[in-house]
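Memo to structure team: turn this sequence into structure tokens by end of day. - J.P.
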Amino acid sequence: MLTILGFVMIATFLVLIMMKKMSPMGALVLIPALFCVLVGKGAHLGDYVIKGVGDLAPTAAMLMFAIIYFGVMIDVGLFDPIVRLILRFCKADPMRVVVGTAILAAIVSLDGDGSTTFMITVSAMVPLYRRLKMSLVVMTGVAAMANGVMNTLPWGGPTARAAAALKVDASDIFVPMIPALAVGLLFVIALSYGLGLRERKRLGVLTLDEVTAGDPEQVLVGAGSGGKGAKGRKGVKAALTGGAGSGTDAEAPSPQGSGSSDSSSHEGEDEDEFKGLDPHRATLRPKLYWFNAALTVALLALMVTETMPIPVLFLLAAAVALTVNFPNMNDQKARVAAHAENVVNVSGMVFAAAVFTGVLTGTGMVEHMARWLVDGVPEGMGPHMAIVTGVLSLPLTYFMSNDGFYFGIVPILAEAGAAHGVSALEIARASLVGQALHMSSPLVPAVYVLVGMAKVEFGDHTRFTVKWAALTSLVVLAAGLAFGII
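Reply from structure team:
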């Protein structure tokens, strides 16, 4: 019964948010609360929620201060050179923009933290997508898939968990998987190319002739970081030079990815979000550029080496960044207020997700679902348990946390495989292939940073991304089999 109710609860959640009958926050709270009562454990709902909140509180704190830190770094101009480089590469060609999104997300993912990746990628790319009227769900989908493939780095989390669960060396898991993961990343870039061509067909080839040509120092970044210096920015002109742009985009509900038909409000939003920031804007700190760069490099290095808990690192880094760049108290308050909306939205979603995970775990539904799937594997598939693990990693890492999957399910699969001569290393490598899909799971806090900052409905993101992310994971699995890694 718990197995059936677990699947029904997840299906109900996904259907309601994809049909936009409920907001993700409301669905994450009310649906599990209802099912907790249905399984006869309503009296324990408070305990389950408090346990879930306790588990996710460090993540919420990390996201809160990470948003403030990287928001300040964007305000002071740390990432302006990166944005200029992207603009030169993209040249307002939708195909180049989408490919650039994948490449940027993959590069930034080297830090091993999905939230950081999404904050930098969205901040750099959203203004360009909005001005060119491109689909934002394409951006969120491509960024999530690129980050999912790169999330398998030893310091990213899943590899370390697999190594700890099966008591093997992380390098023995990751290094042989590099060719398969490289194929997966190339597939994401190729997919980005195809999606970009579709956007080019829908929109035509555009030019932004007054952005970089008119003022080569002018940079495009998101709103909330502009100051008085933005007053003298030049307008942006988008001229059609290619196809008629009359095609449709069946995969993306609207250029904004929100499904809204209010074009006038979209245009107003474009003007607010798409701002040219000149070198003299009030928040820019050119004299502190190398200090901020060194602070960011040190922060990422400490994150990779796990010198301190990540929430503590971001808390300290945000405090230092605010104090040094904005010594005046009123300026500090203004910077925090500028990013408060993202902080509240993302933190709220994390705590709402705590209700979902708390009920799913506390009632035992997730354990019953996982064991039902594992027990359903035919005995004859024993010698091919690595393949089974790779396939099961897609749904299980989507519906479960990485901790639950790697410490609760992978050891069971490894034990079943060992009885048929399948090594623990093969099982560990196969368990990584589902990460491209995992990064779009409603149980992953970082995905709310992605959709929240991009102002994309989570249901739109899910409907667009899941099929492509699942295909990416299967490509990684096929490459692993072809190379004899799995």
